[in-house]
Amino acid sequence: MQADFSYEPVRDGAGCQLAVTILADRDAVRAQMREDAELAGYRILECCSLEEFASGSSGSLGDLVLVDCVEADGAAMAILSRLDMRAGKSGAQLVVSTSMAALDTVFGCFALSGAQILVDAGHAERVIAIGRALAEVPNLRLREMAEEDRLMVLRLTEQVARMAERVEQLSPGQREGGGAFRLEAASQAWRGQGDEYVVVDETRARPRLPDAAYIRQMIAQRQARAKFFDGELFADPAWDILLDLAAARAERQQVCVTSLCIAAGVPATTALRWIAQMVSADLLVRIPDPHDRRRAHIALADSTADAMARYFAAIGAPNAEPVAAL
Questions:
Q1: Comparing C-alpha atoms, which of 271, 252, 169 is closest to residue 211?
Q2: What is the pLDDT of residue 189?
Q3: How far apart are CA 49 and CA 113, in angstroms?
Q4: What residues does CATH 1.10.10.10 cover in the chain?
Q5: pLDDT number for residue 304
Q6: Domain range 19-144, CATH class
Q7: Which helix (H) or strand (E) holds 190?
Q8: Is residue 282 very low, low, confident or very high in pLDDT (cuts 50, 70, 90)?
Q9: Where are the alpha helices (DSSP H) in 136-208?
Q10: What is the pLDDT of residue 312?
Q11: For position 39, what pLDDT does the model report?
Q12: CATH code, residues 189-314
């Protein structure tokens, strides 16, 4: 008797079938997203363009909202910001695919909902994103998986676990024996002076970041390896992100998320996952653009900047020697 591996409806712990809202201006992408959601067992609540959704009645969102927006004009930004607010309040999960050109604008629209943002995503990335959304549903009722499905979920779980472990090891102030992302508050007091960050520590001298040129040289040396070896052999997006932000801080420059994704040296969607993990771990902070509240920049958290400065002092970087506490 042939095994039946067809997808059954996915249901929450109460037995209710999960619903999905699909918003995409590109017809082909919208059709593909609908097919993927139906195959995953979702009930289609709404499937239309962004403009049609905005002009219709403001009904409830699905448990999952799939959005495709590759050109973020003013109208699209307004819709995305409203979706972020509504999803943040309702608990709906958001998966948003966009283009590299529109990434900064789209990223700035999502501050409340913890949206998954995919950049220039292919079909496989969208399917994986739906799977990650399902993994977040408590007491989810699923069909029995085929062996190949089980192996794929296992590999994805292992990858996310490794990422979390690596970020946890980088996290300053982590409690001894604590779990992932359980951090102590910084022991130092911080005060801001304009765009500067000044640490106050009455007990000891503190190091400072070296000149930006030194950090940029280190970054260039790391990138030069790709000329002679496969770049994936040395992929370390968390460290590349920290170095780029340290250089920007030394230069007193702001860093947009698109620039940071490029600096990470991995596909943009992967870089965004690292950035999200590091923000959750309080290694990085998201800073709204003071001139455009719909945009945001990424920066080192104060405690992370202090840890980077001490690292550079430990390896003998020039101009990174301890200085007197203020």
A1: 252
A2: 37
A3: 21
A4: 189-314
A5: 95
A6: alpha beta
A7: strand 189-193
A8: very high
A9: 147-170
A10: 93
A11: 87
A12: 1.10.10.10
